[in-house]
């Protein structure tokens, strides 16, 4: 009985202690890659001589991967396994990993052995220099050009231009974050690749380091050309979140005023035609267009006002601030009393 109590106490201490580094790896049907990845990752992390944990997210795999993960966990309690009930997607898997990670620094990577765990020390060196996010850059990427590299190049250019956060390789999962960065980012849809851009509203510092990339040896890729369309659609969401998430009236109101103004101008023109030129305008398509533009403009302005109410309700109900403090010197609210 005493032995069980002592064992339980040690287990709770392992769970409760804070660690310096958490490595998060989402996977889906990567049975053949799990053990080689674990052994290589374990070798690298042991060489760092810091407190660490490995968090693997089994995103509803249907192969025998979970049995392997369970066996590895039983032999190594520094390996934490989070098994999702079904395949929710990579973004949800990353979100689950962030929720269960306890490290001050969080590193993410893929499970397909195309990322090299040996590059993790490079990311940590940059973090120690004071950066909040360090992104891997697959300079010599080992993927097909037409189906993977070319779409990725186009996507990276568009994302950098639209968000203002310029990275060469948004799609590289090998990244390092300070804990407060990912804990202040809420992920949904397929926004995991945009984390550096989404987090940029906090005023974070970002660096890139070249990392190795290897061709896939086992299994098959879960992504195709259809991913590019999803990236473009998600990019619109990210742009809106970065620029107008706390002031939706600015975009909807501006568009509404523009559209209404066009309708009013057309209406004034038709009024002049009616009273100055004495022409019939009742059957003109322009009259219907003018009315339609004014109505649409009014609806867009109303949508912006409703958006403002939703945003205000959200921030006040969850007590979510619209700012992030980097550091605080002295006591807030101090003064003579």
Structural commentary:
This protein is an alpha/beta fold. The chain has two domains: 18-244, Spore Coat Polysaccharide Biosynthesis Protein SpsA, Chain A (Alpha-Beta Complex), CATH 3.90.550.10; 248-317. It is built from eleven helices and seven strands. It has helices at 2-16, 31-48, 65-75, 90-100, 120-128, 145-163, 179-183, 195-199, 226-244, 248-275, 285-317; strands spanning 19-27, 52-58, 79-83, 103-108, 133-138, 175-178, 206-211. A seven-stranded mixed sheet has the order 3-2-1-4-6-5-7, sandwiched between helices. Strand 2, helix 3 and strand 3 form a beta-alpha-beta unit. Helix 2 (31-48) packs parallel to helix 3. The model is unreliable at 1-15 (pLDDT under 50).
Give the key terms.
337 residues; alpha/beta; 2 domains; seven-stranded mixed beta sheet
- Termini, distance in Å? 57 Å
Rg from Cα: 26 Å
Low-confidence stretches: 1-15
Average pLDDT over all residues: 83
Class from secondary-structure proportions: alpha/beta
Quick rundown:
With 337 residues, the chain is of the alpha/beta class. The chain has helices at 2-16, 31-48, 65-75, 90-100, 120-128, 145-163, 179-183, 195-199, 226-244, 248-275, 285-317, and strands spanning 19-27, 52-58, 79-83, 103-108, 133-138, 175-178, 206-211. The chain has two domains: 18-244, Alpha-Beta Complex (Spore Coat Polysaccharide Biosynthesis Protein SpsA, Chain A), CATH 3.90.550.10; 248-317.
